[in-house]
Structure formats: structure tokens, C-alpha cells
Amino acid sequence: GAVVSQHPSRVICKSGTSVKIECRSLDFQATTMFWYRQFPKQSLMLMATSNEGSKATYEQGVEKDKFLINHASLTLSTLTVTSAHPEDSSFYICSARHSQNTEAFFGQGTRLTVV
Amino acid sequence: AQSVTQLDSQVPVFEEAPVELRCNYSSSVSVYLFWYVQYPNQGLQLLLKYLSGSTLVKGINGFEAEFNKSQTSFHLRKPSVHISDTAEYFCAVSERQGAQKLVFGQGTRLTINP
Description:
The complex is a heterodimer.
Chain A: E1 4-7, E2 10-13, E3 19-25, E4 32-38, E5 44-51, E6 57-58, E7 67-73, E8 76-81, E9 90-97, E10 105-106, E11 110-114
Parallel strand pairs in A: 2-11
Antiparallel strand pairs in A: 1-3, 3-8, 4-5, 4-9, 5-6, 7-8, 9-10, 9-11
Chain B: E1 3-6, E2 10-14, E3 19-21, E4 23-26, E5 31-38, E6 44-50, E7 56-58, E8 64-68, E9 73-78, E10 87-95, E11 102-104, E12 108-113
Parallel strand pairs in B: 2-12
Antiparallel strand pairs in B: 1-4, 3-9, 5-6, 5-10, 7-8, 8-9, 10-11, 10-12
């Protein structure tokens, strides 16, 4: 199957700083990328959908100014958590899909801890 | 809008026993159906998917699922589980058109006991 690489796998940052998470499709062109957030022992909640070259579409309740998503190329999307606070600590997962494929492939996830 | 309900949050099973993880969905439009597995601190891996055709779908690691349109269910089964099957399992649906966003169920924690 296709490979999606997410980096970093773990990050600890101080409250008030910003953190960038990268999601790369290594062997296919990702026309659409999705960003999810997962709290401990809970399901994945979709945060936003991004299409290459377009602004991301955020789900209701997700602050677009806090969670900045960029999808500038067909192989890279980034999620920047701005002015992070302890309540932003969570597991963030990206997935990527090509327009002609019904299956989305997932990155390994990023464990963010804000102290 | 779609919703997914996984009826069991935890399922403990003895090794080599059969298992069924239940999933029901709700949608006003036609959907694709998926089962994913998640190991600790990792992303999701696709086990199997139903797009169309035969309602019995076979996936990786010996898993299979049956789509039942009348009962709006997509239960996951394995005839004989191994210790390595211990993980979190998620059922998901997506619309057939548009962005095809995945909507996930709450997850079922499958624990295999020796």
C-alpha cells in the first residue's frame, strides 16, 4: 500500500510556543489530506480537510487560527498548532488520499505534549 | 450526515477463539465502509473495505466483514484470534461522493488473553 510519513512522532513544547507537524505522501500524489485529533482511549475526530492549493475546510468547533493547515504541494501538508496550551496536548494523525482512490492512508501520528 | 456506532467498547477473548466486533452505521446516502486497526501510539492500518459487490469482504490478517444493508451493519469477524490481534479497532464510513471524509466509530478495544 501507499506510504504516508508523519513527523515528528513525538514533540514536547512549552506553553505559548508553536509546533509544526508534517505529513508527507511518499509514493503517491495526495490530492486531499485530512487531519484528525485523538484523545486518549477515544476515537478520531476530524479537524479539517485540505485539498492541494486550496484553503483547508475546518470542521465545526475547530479554531482555524489556532490550527493552521497548509497543503502547498501534492505530497506535503503541515499542521501548525499556534500558541499551544496544555489542553492542546493530544495525538494528531494525518491521512492522505488521491482523488482516484477510495482509500485514505494514515500517517503514524504525532504525540503532542504541551507543558 | 453519517454516524457509526460500535456496540462494544471492550472485547476480551481467549487466544484461538472466534471474535466478532459489531458496527452499525446511519447515513442518508450511499457509503463506503471500512475497518481499521490501531496499535498503541501508531496510526491506522486498513483491515478491509466494502465498496460494492459481494457483501462478504475478506481483509488482511484473517479478518472478514459482512455488509448487511437491511440492518445497516458491518460486523468484523475472525475465526481464530492471536495474541498479536490485541489492538483498537475502528469502523468507519465515508460518502461515495465529494471529499469522502471518514467518520469513525468510538472504537473497540480487543484484548486477547492466553
